[in-house]
Batch of 3 targets.
Target 1
Amino acid sequence: MIRLLLIEDDTNLGYIIKSSLEEIIGNYEVITASNGEEGLEALANYTPDVIVSDIDMPVLNGLEMVKEIRKFNTDIPIIFASGKNSSKDVTGGYDAGVNLYIKKPFLPEELDAHIKAIMQLKHSQTIPLPKKNYQIGEYIFDPKLYFLEYNSIKQNLTSREARILILLCDSKGEVVLREDILIKFWGVSDYFTSRSLDVFISKMRRYLAKDTAISIKNIKGVGLILECE
């Protein structure tokens, strides 16, 4: 049974999605909320396997809700389902912390496929994290507690940021293929997930900027390489 928290301000659409997943697709338990504030309240009292949310909602929109969720839960898969499909909207969603962005309208079977794919991806990433800390130039990277430390100042990382950095550290000085990163951490390689990866790498460069000997280079059309002079 997949426990799903659905946050959708269109009551009719929410009912259609809920009934389609529970009664037609099957093996779903769907709890609904009509805005981001209700979504946060539901999350405090219910432990879903996955969250599916709209973006434009009253009281608290989807972007702000996701930012709040990521402050205390970096692991739960979150899918944005929205009619807003510009590159700015999509990358904004990924930047806020969603795992997948799908466009309305969609068929129930399509949503089911996305949910199962993202949950399978999450399961595949539950492998044990490295026990050792990494030394990246003047930084210490703790992959277990998800933080970078420089001169005793810590920068917390999300689960995905930490796992991408682990991959780059394990291949330090070597090119990691962009396609491999996208498939491993997003489950799909397309324009929007590629832009999302760019957002993650830009953040990583800012986190590591205090040591000018460190660089994450983009090999255009190929991949990324972490270097320390």
Note: The chain has two domains: 2-124, 134-228.
Target 2
Amino acid sequence: MQTAEQPILGNRKITREWAGVSVTVSSERIVDPVEWVSEHAENLVIVNLGGVTSRMEARLGRGSLYTGAPTLGELSVVPAGERFAGVYQANRVRFADVLFRPGGFSDEQGLASNQHITPFRASLGVVDPFLFGCVVELAKLMEADDGQSDLFGESIAHALKLHMLRLHAANRQVSRPENGAGKVEVAKVQRFVEEHLDEPLTLTRLAGAADVPVHHLIAGFRQVLGTSPARYVLCQRMRRARWLLAHSAMALADVAYSCGLSSQSHLTTTFRKETGLTPAAFRAQFRGLGA
């Protein structure tokens, strides 16, 4: 039997963090049974993202032994400071470790960042479709290297933290957020976006422009504009890109930078996803209509 320190064949791990939520997606082939022990100062959620598990035996703290092969979407919630140990064997499995940093809930709870955060309730082998969906979307964003994916990731991370506080906190006494930002605050953010569209934009920067908490910003955009801040920023970037492509001879790379996108390839990928056309095809089509 291997120990966790010995090599596991075919390992691949990617880690990325948004708004105090650290996600590590691992793809592993574990030929022989592996013993592991995990104990973190942070709350941890382990999510099965697919694969074939032949053996799993796990124990959380002093609880009863959990056995069986986890299915797609099945997850375990490990409270901060709890010992999680067991034996694992899989032909090929993909899973995510989601760590919630201490102080990472300060905005959602209205607490100072150094205040104690109540641990999550321990759960093994449960299903939470919303949590699973958030982790899947974050996993898709992990290898993207641009400001827009950071903004979407930050939005998902905040939604995930609120969900965990409401459904998985040990005391489940966290109140719902207050009313979101109003029309005046949303208008301030809209002006800020227009003035800084060529820069990286985060939820923290946008909320700071209106002097409101991040979760109020998200709620306010939903109430006033019917969309999320991240989606609004993307739409404004694409709006500027369409105008520049139609009314200037600016090189595509410069169009990308003017819209706050990291590269010409990022512009091409995003523009095609949003419009169904590449930037070059859109420019040619627009000029053809004006001929």
Note: The chain has a mean pLDDT of 82.
Target 3
Amino acid sequence: MQPNTLKAESKRIAYQDLVQFFKDVLTAAGVPGHVAEVEAEIGAEVDLCGVHSHGAQLLRMTVQYVRSGLVHPDPQMKVVAEYPASVLMETDRGIGRYTSAMGMDMAVRRAEAFGIGCVAIRDVAHWGRGHSYALRAARAGMIGLAFTNAFANFPAWGTRVPSLGNNPMAVGIPAGAGEEPVALDMAMTQAAIGKVRDIAAEGGRVPIGWGLDGQGRPTDDPKAILASRRFLPMGEHKGSGLAFVIDLLTG
């Protein structure tokens, strides 16, 4: 795996400057200020953690989707079903980071009142990085679990046609006073798609075992894997099984 280092043409940007950049770009695209603020704080923190594939790199796509009408910049979250500790909601293809953050905040409030809180939201756009929402709960003193499904990008174990998403899961666990929480965030494939895209853009190669080419052969060519959409699951049949279950829970 290639080290996550700054390339020669890269620039260091102060965190608060990056937050402001997110806000400026999003508000110029028509995203309301209160939504842009949440999107900016989460997106910039992802870059601060060094996961650049899910930070500012997604900003152009978000703006394009907002301007084309594929993503709603001011999500209207509607309650579909509600119980004391759980809520099922749907949104109108709401912008992902803001909608996901609001869902986790609602789950935290339910947990404070009832000991456990569960919120599911339908029709949400790309949420960025699941770590952000699990960590959001952990910083509030709660154990946080976050799951989502994705478009089909790898075949179920033992099959040929892509039918499962890499369906990430994230877990956040509070630590002691003054300590940062523990967070686990992982996709069900050997590597996140964004990481493979980054390596492809840099002209690099990936480890054998990350994916197959169009003929079903193991390859170290990231472009061939992206074209075939035949990523390989982590843990072979186990990762495939987890992705299937997450699809059932979130699809």
Note: The domain at 15-68 is CATH 1.10.1530.10 (Hypothetical Oxidoreductase Yiak; Chain: A, domain 1).
